[in-house]
Target: TetR/AcrR family transcriptional regulator
Amino acid sequence: MAKRQPGRPFSTEITTDLLEAAERAMERGGYSNLTVDTLVREAGTTRATFYRRFTGASHLAFEVLAAKFGDVGDTDTGSLLGDLTEVQRADVQMLSSQLMRNNLAGLLEAMRTDDQVRELFTERFLAPRRESIRLAVDRAAERGELGAVPGIDIEELRDLMIGPIIARILLPTGGGFDAEFAERTAETAHRHALAAVGIATPEPA
Amino acid sequence: MAKRQPGRPFSTEITTDLLEAAERAMERGGYSNLTVDTLVREAGTTRATFYRRFTGASHLAFEVLAAKFGDVGDTDTGSLLGDLTEVQRADVQMLSSQLMRNNLAGLLEAMRTDDQVRELFTERFLAPRRESIRLAVDRAAERGELGAVPGIDIEELRDLMIGPIIARILLPTGGGFDAEFAERTAETAHRHALAAVGIATPEPA
Amino acid sequence: MAKRQPGRPFSTEITTDLLEAAERAMERGGYSNLTVDTLVREAGTTRATFYRRFTGASHLAFEVLAAKFGDVGDTDTGSLLGDLTEVQRADVQMLSSQLMRNNLAGLLEAMRTDDQVRELFTERFLAPRRESIRLAVDRAAERGELGAVPGIDIEELRDLMIGPIIARILLPTGGGFDAEFAERTAETAHRHALAAVGIATPEPA
Amino acid sequence: MAKRQPGRPFSTEITTDLLEAAERAMERGGYSNLTVDTLVREAGTTRATFYRRFTGASHLAFEVLAAKFGDVGDTDTGSLLGDLTEVQRADVQMLSSQLMRNNLAGLLEAMRTDDQVRELFTERFLAPRRESIRLAVDRAAERGELGAVPGIDIEELRDLMIGPIIARILLPTGGGFDAEFAERTAETAHRHALAAVGIATPEPA
DNA sequence: GTATAACCGAGACGGTACGTCAGGTCTTGAT
DNA sequence: ATCAAGACCTGACGTACCGTCTCGGTTATAC
Model:
């Protein structure tokens, strides 16, 4: 029954002020410019109050992203290629946003050090996306699209899909994303999956 | 003839001491622990001396990586798939090293802000690797392996190859690299290239 | 009512530690050896904490002297000569201290540059001493010792009294102060004042 | 016969360039702004070359003043008061110059630490001025103006004369020097000397 | 209603790093 | 041996963040 804690509860207004201030800073300057001092000043509060809610700037940054992109839907389109394309479209949209472009590298570095942020990220971002792919593959197997599921490394499929998007965002030369980028890379991942179970790729679309 | 410039020359010993100190720190703690103070302390020199050589810790970190992984060879194996596999093998080896695992995210974030580091990185890391792929594709086109070169986006091909490696390194859940990872991803990139020019993929290897 | 200001108050212990450290350094090495780094190290605190209290080393040095010599009493002995002698005795005692010998020149140089230190010095050291002399002259005028006050330049009288003491301290050849130095120079200043209003000097004492 | 040193001799041009650069800097910013770096840059030479000529900035500063004010003439006006007035006029002129106002305090502080500068200053500035006063007193004694010379402390007389000038320069509130300042203070010193040998002061001028 | 527990603003605090400046010395090549 | 150039070590500068703390004052529940 989630018992009420004694004492004065957190002011929700301050929390949202901080989240908004962080989002603005992340949109503008990006991760390197996120300092607790600046955030609390802009949110009109103080360091101590900040640290009651978050363990540090990286934690808050993560929460901003989680609020924006935390929930992934799972759509059953009826075919593996269709499902993978859906997943890829959602990820391209998420990762190509200014918020991600400016902060992904910084957060990935923060994860290396900070266990808490790493766990949160894994749980809220990585796991759901991996699950979407696993479900798509399972459904394909049930439909008989794939001979044998065990031959497919879900993790590898995921990296094959999200990797090119990340590369395009993080590497300086990376251009934009044209309308068919998601389709092309999803097809390639699809071929990869088929090849893994020994099925020759059908006619290219 | 590289004329001698006037004045006392840089002490090469100090330079190598700094590079070595940086490499140790990068191997151990990774990018976040790279501070100018710590480096000069360990190298037995001073901040001012450091700043005569490097613009900051990120610049030095880049130089360490450039010294280790700067030069890429170009091997002509006689087939596009063979060439791409060579490229991929080299990149897997480079990126899976502890040095890269611990520092790639930090450097990518540094690049967002620091123009100089971004240019150096682009010039010394990105451009040569892109060039390797371009040469492989050009040779394949000459051999008639590919119908029309213009249909192939070199940049996209590069992202399709390096992306999965990066994802595996930077994302917390990323496992290791088994012996055939390079082969599999190179094959997938190869299929992607063929599909781009409308050629059906041959029998999977 | 001296309302309490918000926030954590300054630690008085740190303040006194700094003042004591400064006094020791001023006594030992003198002004040139006063560095913020050394002071905070000896007081066991940090630069930032120092700068919350003082604008710089010269400010702190001034505060040390102000605490020691800040307040001057005003004694009415009944005669101008007596009053001037009292003032002179106090100034000889103050300026002949090791603290002043070692730091006066440095502080005078600091004053040239730093407006704040100049103002503090003027207000807390110069003004009160000038006032003592002015009061003595006013009382003498009321008693009829001096014909007309306006004829006396208080500033000049002050310089005539404090000047010789300063010269003796700052100039390298300056010897010590014998017991009658204050009396002799006060008499001379007295004669100067009388001469300024056209009164012949009486018998030398 | 002042044997010629082996090797290349000092460039006199550099020496004068340095002296001139120093004078400009002393006139403008004053002692605190005298840095070896700035001086050699402005003189178009280098630190090493500077240190072959001078032991430090304070040494050079002293040389500038010595070149300007080093030699004092000795005039015999026929009376003690006349001679003292001459001395005082010269000192007022010297000390009231911008060059002295901006650098005296700094040099006095430098003297406290640097033995060499102290010796140079004593020898070239203090000793000659003391000697002028001593000669004036000796002549007065020969003329019978003073009963007995031994009763007069030359050092004290010097401090009584130069002290007020110094006070007026160094103390922040010190005003300017009107035309009769030298006369008035010389008279006062004269009275002091007479009093010291027990002679009543004559009618004020 | 009145404890009590936790919040909140303000800002000091020790720690660590930043990038710069000045001092005085040393190394290189040239005169 | 001087000179220009500039690296080098030492040590100090004033500032920025970090995460914690100490104040005085303010809510919300819980007794």
